[in-house]
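Apologies for my clumsy wording, but are you able to produce some protein sequence, whichever is easiest, and the tokens describing how it folds?
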Amino acid sequence: MATLKAAILPVTPLQQNCTLMYDDETKAGVVIDPGGDVDRIVEAIGEIGIEVEKILLTHGHIDHAGGAAELKEKLGVPIEGPHEADRFLLEGLEQTAAEYGMTGARNVEPDRWLKEGDTVSFGPFTFAVCHCPGHAPGHVVFLQEDLRIAHVGDVLFKGSIGRTDFPYGDHAALIDAIKTKLLPLGDDMGFICGHGPPSTFGEERQTNPFIQ
């Protein structure tokens, strides 16, 4: 019987949660948001024995996408996501890296842009794609309702939400996405986020001061 497992590997000076999701039986899996430290990601993949089928990107910020081009070359797999509204971020990764004093980041174009209502699959698992702008215009979230698990990137955190103080940020859109697309999925829905520990939608609905 297929069992979904996840390994979280904080990468870059921003401690972004690069997530390795895989089927524990076949080891078929994906890498979500390889922001950097690609050699460490490849080492972790080898240690677990994951057969990576694709790379998924929640959005175009450097700590989430900066290592995607290099990892794609090393693994020979396609990149899927985010929504095309983040194209300008992915095309500016090298410039952003220079501004942050980060090395190794490369501009990247995914093999497949994602939109609301799409699905992404690996091994025996299929995740629904939900477009949740606000933190970034093209931010997407990956949802597996049967298994009660989501990967929400930087939309929602334990006790906080994604920043919206960028020129393209939209606080109202972010709150709307959380309240209308995520929380209605149920209090028992667990999530992995882009920074910090996991949580559940129920815990955040009850205790997160940003969405009270």
